[in-house]
Amino acid sequence: MSTGRRGAAWGVLVLLGLGVLSGCKRGDSEAQQPQAQAPVVLGPTDVVRVEPQELRSGPVLSGTLQARRAATMRAEVQGAVLEMVVEQGQQVKKGQLLARIEDSSLQDQLIAARTSVRVARNALQVARAEEERNRKLSSAGVITRRDLERAVLARFQAQAQVSDAEARLALAQQEVGRTRVRAPFAGVVSERHASAGDIVQPGAALYTVVDPTSLRLEASVPATQLSTLKPGVAVDFKVGGYGDRSFKGRIEQINPAVDPGTGQVRLYVTLPNTEQTLLTGLSAEGRVASMRREVPAVPVSAVDVRSDPPSVLRVKDGRVERVPVTLGMKDELARLVELRSGVQPGDVLLRAPAGDIGEGAPVELRLSESPQEPEPGVGGGGTPQAEPPPEQPKPR
């Protein structure tokens, strides 16, 4: 083989080797390249929009609702309970009979007292007649002055016996009346503490009656906030078990003394309940409505207050970005906070900035009812699908 042919053959081999090496390197680089990250699907519970909302600020009050008027009816005499007339939860009128206690011995005492009154009154009538007769005899000189004085003294003693007998009769009547337990005011029986047949002693609880038409909340606030509080100021309430429904009350009294241990002042707030919608014992949370403003706001959970300055995670163009914001007014009761700068009304934010979705992560918003289509016009965007390649001509 000539030298020229041998050189050409070596050149071809070198070119083939280089092609094989470059192909291997290209294959290795393509194998090592990571696949594109799939977007995270977010639903309505994962995001929140920045929207103008009415925020209210003021001292927050919390406690348990209690009836302004409540009375525990107790036994005033000893004996067996004959009848418990009303049941728990039943409405009663003022003076309505609630319970009866056995009164046979008291009735005997009442009969004896009435008899004593009649006897004493008859004795007084006789003493008066005797006094009148002795006065006439004394005037005629038939009896001495001393005999007249004795007749007058006997009449005074008879009057005293009548007064004593009448007092004993009134006491016996009161004792019999105490065996009838009656409602002190119109209300509802909240508790029944005894049953028919029980032997009760004076002071034993029988019923608890409450007036549900007006409730009261006792709460404490820092003494530093007293400048915004005074009797008559309106208080907005939310009561456990009634969802987002709000109720209105007013500050009735402010305790004049500050608790030296806590620096708190006791407040008493009345809450009208004429429709008897609310029940005593429910937990309530209220706020003194000292200031109201309508501003762009979001739930407090959407703001990362640990960062400096505070920040939020906003969804824009299908990705998550961290945006510093300036906070303003805060509504403690509604748990909303004003965003003064950094975002605009209509922006979509993640509810939990400290979650697993990090800054720069691709996301897809599905805020409509249909789970297959993202909400239009809200930077949603998963990865667009590529168009199919054009059809190649078939070889002949």
Automatic annotation (TrEMBL):
Protein name as catalogued: Efflux RND transporter periplasmic adaptor subunit
Residues covered by the CusB-like beta-barrel domain: 217-290
Biological source species: Archangium lansingense
Domain CzcB-like barrel-sandwich hybrid: 71-211
Stretches for region Disordered: 360-396
InterPro entries for this protein: Beta-barrel_RND_2, BSH_CzcB-like, RND_pump_MFP
Domain of life: Bacteria
Pfam families recorded: Beta-barrel_RND_2 (PF25954), BSH_CzcB (PF25973)
Regions of compositional bias (Pro residues) in chain numbering: 386-396
Family: Belongs to the membrane fusion protein (MFP) (TC 8.A.1) family.
